Amino acid sequence: MSGRSSLVARLFWTIVAGGAAALWFGQPALIATGAVLALILLHRIDRPRRFRRLVRRLAQRHARTLALRRRQECFVDAYGNLISDGWLRERAYFAERTILPHLAERGHAEDAERRWEEILSLVERVAASVRLPDETETPEDGVAYERYCAERLRAAGWDAHATQASGDQGADVVAEFGGIRLVVQCKRYGKPVGNAAVQEVAAAARYWSGDMAAVVSNAGFTPAARKLSAATGVLLLHHDDLAALRPVRASVRGRRETASS
Predict the structure, then answer these.
(1) For this UniProt entry, which residues form the secretion signal (predicted)?
(2) Most buried of 7, 113, 152, 224 (most Cβ within 10 A)?
(3) Residue spans of beta strands (DSSP E) within the chain
C-alpha cells in the first residue's frame, strides 16, 4: 500500500470509528475524533523532516569514514579538472547499502525511491562537514612518506620500520603488533592507486611471512584495486586510518602457512 493510500485509509477508518462513537457519546467523541485526525495529518506533514533527520543520523555514524573517502576519491587531473567519479560511486554505494535498508525498516522505502537525490545530498553535506587533518602536512617525497606512515603506525602501538629501498620485494614498511606482522606499501599519489600495488603488496606479504597486508595512500583506489583487495584480503587505507589499525591474524589470502604457526 502506498503512503498516500495508507493515509487515506487511516483517515477513513478514524472517521468511521469516530462517527460511530459519536452516536453513543455525542460531542466529546466528535472532539476526540477531530484531535486524532489532526494528529494523523500532523504526523504526515512532519514525515519529510523525520526522513531527513533519519538519513543525517545514519550518515553521521560514519561521518569520518565518509569524509576520508571523499578526500581520497577526489583528485585534480593533469588538466586542472576536479575528478570526483570515485567519490560519487562511493557515496551511492554507502547510500544503497547502509541508508536504504534502515529507511525500509522505518517505513520510508517509497520515500527513499522518490528522494534518492536528496539522500545523496544529505550524505554529501555530512561528509563535507568533517574537518580532517591538513593534507599539506603529509610529506610529498615518497621515501619521507614511507617514514611518515611508519611513524603513524608506531604511534598506534606497532613496532614499525621502513624497509631498505633495495631488496624490499614490494614492502615499504613492516610492522608487528602482538605477534601479528603487517606488510605495507605506501603510495603518495595525486590520483587513485591501481591494482598493481595490491598485487605487489600481496606478493610482499608472502615474502615477509606477513599476516596482514595493506596499501596506504593519500589518494583513493581504482575500482579494479578495490575488487582485487576484496579477493586477496589486502587492506586499502588512507594514512589517517593507521591510527586505529589493529592486528588481525591471517587476513591475507594465499600467504605462507608458516605465518600462522
Answers:
(1) none
(2) 152
(3) 75-76, 82-83, 159-162, 173-177, 180-187, 212-217, 235-238
In tens digits, the chain (261 residues) has pLDDT values of: 455 556 556 655 666 676 666 667 667 766 776 666 566 555 565 578 888 899 999 999 999 889 988 887 888 777 889 889 889 999 999 999 999 999 988 888 887 888 999 999 999 999 999 887 766 667 878 889 999 999 999 999 999 999 876 556 789 999 999 999 999 999 988 788 999 999 999 999 999 999 999 999 988 788 899 899 999 999 999 898 898 899 886 556 544 433 333
Cβ neighbours of 143 (radius 10 Å) = 13
Number of other CB atoms surrounding residue 189 within 10 Å: 17
Provide the strand spans (E) within 63-219.
75-76, 82-83, 159-162, 173-177, 180-187, 212-217
The answer to whether residues 204 and 255 touch, using CB atoms and an 8 Å cutoff, is no
Instruction: Please name the residues in contact with 222: beta carbons below 8 A apart, sequence gap of 6 or more.
Output: 86, 192, 193, 194, 195
- How far apart (Å, rounded) are the C-alpha atoms in residues 67 and 241? 12
CB 77 within 8 A of CB 144: no
* Antiparallel, parallel or unpaired: β 75-76 and 82-83: antiparallel
State the cell numbers at 74. Answer: 577526489
Secondary-structure percent of the chain, ordered helix, strand, coil, rounded to 5: 60, 15, 25
User: Rounded to two decimals, what is the model's pTM?
Assistant: 0.62
The cell numbers describing 255, all together, are: 600467504
